[in-house]
């Protein structure tokens, strides 16, 4: 005989009686079994998603899940640094090379150039039986070798390019990469210039597919190298270099919304038919799906400028926690709401067994794995500290006597072409510009100065120190920290070192003579030859940025 307590009466309720409510307890056993299996599978799947979060967004430093800092670095592209901290800001080269190998080639992703975009050779080798897996490892090794070279000290980097020989760091000595780019007589050494030519220069050369961004010389490649990020006074956010790309963010958004909309609707419906009070069912039932939508919205809002972007990125931790706790309530309450005392006892035993299995997995697999990750990170940090300590022991570059710091890694391209006495400089209108080759743009290549040079010694005596002040002020801006340089350009007001205050031509200074009008100076002294459409356009900050990196002396 059926249990009358599990039977929904078929006759209508009396007007003064509440209508009977269908709950999970009224389901037939087969339906309960299907729903129980579904809920348990969802729980296991969500647990595996936590593992994926560790692998994808964590620092792999021994922490089980991504930290708040990791989330802000990935979604907002920012990391908080205090004054004095070391900033490891990935270079443009690293960002584009370590992109998505299966994505499209773009200004933010050049990874396919190492894989399928190398059409003939890659496709031919990939067709060989059992070759593709090893081929992908070799091509990935090429990328890692280039990144290691980019992270080397500027002097080491330049010499390695010149010699076409780069010695990999110890942790990468056994890196698997294409044999054609290794020095067989010197294991652990990469033919770095040859690698760049084959993977990059074939498109990034005059007349090539990407000829507008040539990479045919070290100076051109050096523009993509790491630069030291400036930390705001009192601490602040700097670029992390890890921000998720729009292509990947779009893919994740549509995949998560479509799949989770179905999944959390199902678990929410199961929860809605438990025997819990209506206010609890009406709140917890839909909250998981609502939190998931809010979570994905924060992914996009995190891309807003500071301080809003990092704030929304931090909110992702909260919305994610709501999803996790809410889903756990869906599963646990749904399972226990289906069964009577015997079924609940069986569930308790099942969860106890799962807890024991989880503890064993933690002790035998997860904890050793996390400890190994932590040890690897600590070893890398110790090696980097040792390298920094060695750098500190080197003789520091001296000040030029004008309050302008000398750039570590050697003078930049702009600094080299604008340094030297203008009277002895050889003017170069095109071609490869030697040291001092653009100095005269501030002096006798400008009409007023040229006229004074011919016939007005008094005016010449006045203009000469002003033009020298212009050049020194411009070089001070060139040598400034990247963020200060960008802000000075965007604001058209760069704060000058005390020794240069009031030295430049007044029209390029603010009323106090303390700030340089960078854009106006560039427009006046440079754009007559370097406007948009010229071989070397300098009409934008991006155009100028190509010549901020250290350049080998001509």
Q: How would you summarize this macromolecular structure in one to three sentences?
A:
Residues 381-402 have a biased composition (Basic and acidic residues). The chain crosses the membrane at residues 29-51, 257-280, 316-340, 346-370. With 554 residues, this protein is mainly α.
Explain this structure to me?
It is a single chain. With 554 residues, the protein is mainly α. The protein has four domains: 24-63 and 245-339, no CATH class; 90-225, no CATH class; 341-391; 413-423 and 435-546, no CATH class. 52% of the residues lie in helices and 3% in strands. It has 18 helices and six strands. The strands form three sheets. It has a two-stranded antiparallel sheet with strand order 1-4. Strands 2-3 form a two-stranded antiparallel sheet. Strands 5-6 form a two-stranded antiparallel sheet. Residues 381-402 have a biased composition (Basic and acidic residues).
